[in-house]
Amino acid sequence: GGGAAVVCDDGNPCTLDSCDAVTGCRHTLDAAAVPDDGVACTIGSCASGAPVFTPSDAACDDGLYCTGVERCQPSAPGRDARGCVRSEVPEPPGPSQPCAYYATCDEATRGFPLVRLPMGAACDDGIACTSLDVCQSEGGACAGTPTASCAGLECSSSVPWSSTIDIPSAQVSGALTLDGAAIPSEVPSNGYGTATVWAVSRETGVRHRLAELRHTNYQSSTGGYRLVVGDASYQTLLVPGVYDLLYERQASVNSNGSGDRWVGRVTPGALMPSGWRVLREGVVIGAGASTLNVDIASAQVSGALTLDGAAIPSEVPSNGYGTATVWAVSRETGVRHRLAELRHTNYQSSTGGYRLVVGDASYQTLLVPGVYDLLYERQTSVNSNGSGDRWVGRVTPGALMPSGWRVLRQCVEVR
Asked: Could you tell me the end-to-end alpha-carbon distance of the chain, in angstroms, rounded to an integer?
């Protein structure tokens, strides 16, 4: 009777297995055998009776530029089902923007075509509180129209938490002009100083330095000042959003802890006005590259000071001594701009009185055009307890000028 069949498979793909009725199992080497390891990119062969699997990059390479370099690396992490690993995949030459983005890789040109959307095309400026977003120019910045929610941080809706936090950027550049004209490259000594244009975030109120206008580098041969190279233009990066443009020059903060901000006055003939004024409100700076030119307008204001409708006395007794200041208070920022001072100083021993400082019965200065309130100040102090409380002292009988912190006129337009 027959027994169980003998299994002669030795597990070696490079041998031919058979069973001889007399000698038993036979394993004959087969050099023509092609073993298979289950990896598509390897080539199997037999050497000295053992299988050899040789990686073949040609089995991975599809011959396309856009797919990068493809190599057969069956044991490498990130290999695909064929055992292939892809590297050096071409990337666009720069980041895409809403109105100028790079299309997918093109085999014909071996590059990434830049698609520039036309002006007025719909886009997304990345600012949640704007609507009707469109491209401001062909391939330029994307910006929408601010809505009421741009004014604060109130939540109209919420979004799920995302582990990825993207930081967007907007490239802003432009030129500075003064009253619509180019900035003089050299100015007299009273043109000296620095003016700063800030982009004030609508939702945080924090100022971002956008540009500076400076005349420094004193020239002894001319007695004047020269414009710092590049200060007639600017280029910077901001986070996309809605900003107000603020002009600042000659601004100081009181050292008494009140945080009160005020602006000094410039001398007659000065190049740039003093100011803490908003030049433009609700400027949308969207994703992409945009041009934002800033013109600094100035208005020369001058006039005379009178007291109870009469001319200021040129000399007064001792109780006429003191300083009164008239401020132009910006309606949109609340910051005081020194407009004029009325001072009787320089004690005269022969008369026992005080003499009017030359020119203090009149004034002349530069301001940024806008609407102001005229504020009179004399004998004012701020409590030293940190409360910021302001109070006014009283004057002696027969004094020339009253004490006060009072508005003389409201809504005065300077243009």
From this structure: 124
Q: Which pair of tokens denotes residue 197? A: 């244009």
Burial category of 98 from C-beta neighbours within 10 Å (exposed 0-12, middle 13-18, buried 19 and up)? buried
Give 90-131 pLDDT, tens digit per residue.
999 988 889 999 999 999 999 999 999 999 999 998 888 899
**Among candidates 27, 59, 22, which has minimal Cα distance to 44?**
59
Please indicate whether residue 254 or residue 415 has the higher confidence score (pLDDT).
415
Q: Which amino acid is at 341?
A: E
Residue 388, C-beta contacts closer than 8 angstroms, at least 6 positions apart: 257, 258, 259, 260, 382
pTM score over 0.85: no
- Alpha-carbon distance 197 to 184, whole Å? 18
Say if CB 298 and CB 272 are below 8 A apart. yes
Of 87, 85, 86, 89, residue with least CA distance to 65: 89
| Contact present, 6 and 25 (Cβ < 8 Å) | yes
Q: Which two structure tokens, joined as six digits, stand for 328?
A: 């132009």
For tokens 């698609």, what's the residue?
115
